[in-house]
Amino acid sequence: MPELRKDPILDRWVIIATERSRRPSDFAPTAVPVNTGESVFSPGSEDKTPSEVFQIGRDASAAANSSGWNVRVVPNKFPALHPDGDLDSRAVGPFDAMNGVGAHEVVIENPSAAWDLADASVEEMGNVLEAYIERNKVLSEDERFRYILTFRNYGSTAGASISHPHSQIIAVPVVPKQLKDQLDVAKAHYRAKRRSIYGDLVRQEIESGARIVEENQHFVVLCPYASRFPFETTIYPKRQQHDFTAITAEEKLALSETLPRTLKRIKNALNNPPYNMMIQTAPITSPRPGQSDYWGTIAEDYRWHIDILPRLTQVAGFEWGTGFYINPVSPENAAEFLRDS
After folding, report:
1. Which run of H or E residues covers position 306?
2. Residue pair 97/90 in contact by the 8 Å Cβ criterion
3. C-alpha closest to that of 104 among 69, 148, 146, 144
4. How high is the pLDDT of residue 292?
């Protein structure tokens, strides 16, 4: 019988349609093709991108924007937001508007167009994480910005327009509503119980074990209780920390092992499906004009995490019309299958 499940953090219901339950082999996503050639991001094509803002690997004596890098970060050539100018927040009749100010960067994860994050070595993954951390730190110093999302679109149906392995970082001047909703719930839970709702969730999931994919000293990988999509997967740090950039060297090493292995499980189980990966971290907490104490207990109540959403089904009319998601695979079955992959 179908089951309604409620996400305790987003106050969102999903339908686990057990009568429509499907095995992993029933999904037939188009496998993401491997790029065996070169691309605009390949070494030797550095002049085809905007000038880099960060790189790892090239000798310090080498010229900027030359080959020899392991990871390279450049401004997006076609940015969603532009880094120059003032916000100019204003009313337009009953509406609000501001200039499209922000930052939009591309993290070119590896020189090889055929490389895959799921196959990354610990060193390679560590370099990518280091690029994420350093660029998040730099962008957070801009007082115009309120939130930074680091994300990865894998495959064209997941939004990737270039097949060369890359991630993106976008800084925006507002806090997204979905994150505000999470922060409100986390704050209310902490004020009532003096505990993080994320800590409670992780502890209970570990005790249950039914939805755990993998666990180590620093991280737990699980399929959420109220998963919106088949094989939706989340990686949580075990230590309470709201800011992704504050991970320790030991945690970064553990994540450099855990994240590629999780992506490899999904790749093996589901025939290399397209997916979206997002690092969900806290908004920028350094003082901003008019918001010196806005975040209050955020360091104790919110916890950063990584969401991975395989693109196996489509959002259709019922989902758009109601906000309910229909998931044909229970997270318990998904976790069991991923554990064995």
Report:
1. strand 305-310
2. yes
3. 148
4. 54
List strand residue ranges (DSSP E) for 173-280, in order. Answer: 212-215, 219-222, 233-237, 275-280
Q: Are residues 87 and 122 in contact, defined by beta-carbon separation less than 8 angstroms?
A: no
| Alpha helices (runs of H) in 232-329, residue ranges in sequence order | 249-270, 298-301, 317-322
Question: Tens digits of per-residue pLDDT, 301-313?
Answer: 999 999 999 998 8
- Distance between CA atoms of residues 253 and 94, nearest Å: 50
Whether the model clears a pTM of 0.90, i.e. scores above it, the answer is yes
Q: How many other β-carbons are positioned within 10 Å of the β-carbon of residue 12?
A: 16
> Is the CATH code 3.10.450.750 the one for domain 3-339?
no
Q: What letter represents residue 291's amino acid?
A: Q
DSSP assignment of 161-173 = S--S-EEEEEEES
CA distance 125 to 114: 15
The 3-state DSSP class for residue 8 equals: coil
